[in-house]
Amino acid sequence: MEFELPGNPDYGQLVARLEPGERILSESGAMSRMAPSFDLRTRLMGGILRALARKVLGGESFFLAEYESPSGGEIAFSPALPGSVVHRPLDGQRLLVTAGSFLACSSEVDIRTRFGGLRSFFSGEGVFLLEVGGRGDLFFNTYGAMVEEDVEDELVVDTGHVVAWEPTLEYTIGGMGGLKQTLFSGEGLVMRFRGRGKLWLQTRTLGQTAGWLVPYLLR
Questions:
Q1: pLDDT in tens for each of the 219 residues of the chain?
Q2: Strand bridging mode 128-141 / 109-115
Q3: Residue 204 to residue 165: CA distance in whole angstroms
Q4: Cα three-residue angle 201-205-210, rounded to 5 degrees
Q5: What's this model's pTM, rounded to 2 decimal places?
Q6: Rounded CA gap, 97 and 219, in Å?
Q7: H helix or E strand, kind and range, residue 201
Q8: Residue 144 to residues 4, 164, 196, 216: CA-CA distances in angstroms?
Q9: 3-state secondary structure 117-173
Q10: How far apart are CA 18 and CA 15, in angstroms?
């Protein structure tokens, strides 16, 4: 598979050129254009019970879309929000990707769902995470620009800015301080990452954008 990422960093998309018989998986509804020879199949992630739980608790899709063409061709995928599309080649590593950030991957990549625990109900990042690993090409998207951080000890991040991280990092979710600081500082909940590993962040959050728009909608 050959690919390019036109439109980065503001309006990134993935354009992939597949050889005959090659397959690519994507988030449901992400395809923007393709050659007419492609066939579409749907694939459940983690079985029907996990898929149903993701839909009810996390508002996430039941399915991945799987595209294949007997003659090969070009296919493009666009994320729902403007920003960067990030390519991460995998060679046995695993990554944890937050809800809504997964865009696509080559068919060799293994995708599983992981329950983030009860703390995830309040994090703004979704109840379920995607655990992605194996060998192949992974593509995920950010809202705004992408920032890659090398954590060597500890880093505190607003929950809405977290996109993906290496599982060598442990994290907890909590407030900025006491109850007063959490409720009135405007910062809300944060994720405290500890250990050594890479962390991918986005420079914008949908919640902040929605909050900025509300006063204009009420006029």
A1: 999 999 999 999 999 999 999 999 999 899 999 999 999 998 776 555 555 554 544 445 557 899 999 999 999 999 999 999 999 999 999 999 987 899 999 999 998 877 665 454 444 545 568 889 999 999 999 999 999 999 999 999 988 899 999 999 999 888 765 554 544 444 567 889 999 999 999 999 888 888 888 888 876
A2: antiparallel
A3: 17
A4: 175
A5: 0.85
A6: 38
A7: strand 197-202
A8: 19, 15, 25, 22
A9: CHHHHHCCCCCEEEEEEEEEEEEEECCECEEEEEECCEEEEEHHHEEEECCCCEEEE
A10: 10
AA letter at 169: L
Tokens of 114: 């992981």
Q: What is the rounded CA–CA span in Å between residue 112 and residue 203?
A: 26
Q: Which residues pair with 88 in a beta bridge?
A: 138
* Residue 74 Cα to chain centre, angstroms: 23
To which residue do tokens 């050594």 refer? 196
**Full set of structural domains in the chain with CATH:** 2-217 (3.60.160.10)
Number of neighbouring beta carbons within 10 Å of residue 151: 18
**Distance between CA atoms of residues 108 and 110, nearest Å:** 6
For residue 64, what are its two tokens? 């991945």
Give 25-94 as a DSSP string: EEETT-EEEE-TT-EEEEEESSHHHHHHHIIIII---SEEEEEE-TT-EEEEE--SSSB-EEEEEEEEEE
